[in-house]
């Protein structure tokens, strides 16, 4: 009998997880079925309990349930603890395990572009959950300095204070968007500003060699500005594939090659 997997969220219609996991399965020979589950906002826990009690093997978690999943897990990976969010669930001996593969997905996507991460200076725009989830994997991948820029400086400073002990090998710094300046190897947009049309204007005082937009499938003023400077760019589809591959690997012990799915 094929293994049963699912992705849970609200809304869920837009999720591309089923097509990705079915593509991985076709490539690796894993026998699985992967569905979408729309859960009511107050019905997340009941939904996952039903799924696993009916023999489900693993579940991905998307907006807005990642923090609830984190709170509900009995065993958490190091990167899930640091992200304070879970996007990958599975049962082991009746115990619910949780991991967060988003940050590793970003790292794998950047590596697939052949962009360096070792000894790099990175600027991340935004101080929300997306940024929190990628700091540890970027540090593990060899980043030397990570600067977090946010409209509200206090929020970026809080994130630095929260994460400093988890990544002692990296220089973490918080700045206000108003003071964007300096030279960076990589700039990452982790905000939704470029999608909502609330355009972030990148000042001339800011120099960067590469630009990564976490979102995908929509126009991005952030990437438009980077392209106008002749800087290599990428949108976030590779990150989506990368996090899915990492979940697939946790569940099935096989790691598909990300470059084959871009």
Task: Explain the overall architecture.
Helix 5 packs across helix 6. With 262 residues, the protein is of the alpha/beta class. The protein contains ten helices and 14 strands. The chain has a six-stranded mixed β-sheet, with helices on both faces. Strands 9-8-7-11-13-14 form a six-stranded parallel β-sheet, sandwiched between helices. NADP(+) binds at residues 78, 126-130, 150-155, 214, 236. Shikimate binds at residues 15-17, 62, 87, 102, 216, 243. Involved in the biosynthesis of the chorismate, which leads to the biosynthesis of aromatic amino acids. Catalyzes the reversible NADPH linked reduction of 3-dehydroshikimate (DHSA) to yield shikimate (SA). Residues 236-259 form the SDH C-terminal domain.
Beta-strand fraction estimate = 15-25%
Rg estimate, integer Å: 18 Å
Assembly category: single chain
**Spatial arrangement of strands, main beta sheet:** 2-1-3-5-6-4
Number of helical stretches of at least 4 residues: 10
Question: What is the CA–CA distance across the termini?
Answer: 30 Å
Mean pLDDT reading = 95
| Poorly predicted residue ranges | none
Largest sheet: 6 strands, mixed
Element order, helices and strands?
EHEHEHEHEEHEHEHEEEHEEHEH
**Gross morphology:** globular
Give me the secondary-structure topology.
Layout: E1 3-9, H1 17-28, E2 32-38, H2 44-53, E3 58-61, H3 66-72, E4 75-76, H4 78-83, E5 88-92, E6 95-99, H5 102-112, E7 121-125, H6 129-140, E8 145-150, H7 153-163, E9 171-176, E10 182-184, E11 186-189, H8 193-196, E12 206-208, E13 211-213, H9 221-228, E14 233-234, H10 237-252
Parallel strand pairs: 1-2, 1-3, 4-6, 7-8, 7-11, 8-9, 10-12, 11-13, 13-14
Antiparallel strand pairs: 3-5, 5-6
Helix pairs in contact: 1-10, 5-6, 5-10
